[in-house]
Amino acid sequence: MRVIMMAVLATALLISGCTRVQYGDATATETVTVDFGSTDLQMIASQMVDDLLTFPPVVQMTMQRRPVVFVDRVQNRTVEHIDTESVTDSIRTRLIQSGKFRFVDMTVVDRVRQQMDFQTQSGMVDPATAVTLGRQIGAEFMLYGALTSIVKRDNRTKDVYYKFTLNMMNLETGIIEWSSEKEIRKTRSRSLFGL
């Protein structure tokens, strides 16, 4: 009897321990939960970039030159843990790939300064090849925004409303040159019997 029980237990452990991993389409609609997910990130980034690139004053501004922009991290004003840096990375990448903008990255300023100090002060770098200090280009515009949510629920339904706001400010004048909002609503319903 004990041998049979051990065999059943071993079989159960073997079956429950089997894992299957497979690749999926990274752009496919993800509907596992009502939480903020990859589909939401991709949709927001795509719609925001399209909106910015088709805004008439921005079209005119980028016809003859590529303005320099920096992206401030999007504020997460939801109750969820959302990697807003991923949202800003996607927006910046799409804007760079449009060929209409150039970007400075404020998140690496300290590391750039360390490298420049190394080149100019360590004595290990040929001064003829060292980067000249004070020659970096300043940003003309700043992109910044916020992600907010409103969550409503009752016994059977959970409704989540997300609003993403993004602004582009002229750093010299302080004028907001462009602003847009994108909204997402997701609803999860349980059956009457909780299945």
Break the fold down into its secondary structure elements and pairings.
Blueprint lengths: L1 H15 L21 H17 L1 H6 L6 E4 L3 E3 L6 H15 L3 E2 L5 H13 L19 E13 L3 E14 L5 E14 L6
Helix pairs in contact: 2-4
What does this molecule look like?
- The protein has 195 residues and is of the alpha/beta class.
- The chain has a single domain (34-121, 136-189), classed as Rossmann fold (3-Layer(aba) Sandwich), CATH 3.40.50.
- It contains five helices and six strands, in the order H-H-H-E-E-H-E-H-E-E-E.
- Helix 2 runs parallel beside helix 4 (84-98).
- The longest helix is centred in the first third of the chain and has 17 residues, at 38-54.
- The mean pLDDT is 84.
- This is Penicillin-binding protein activator LpoB.
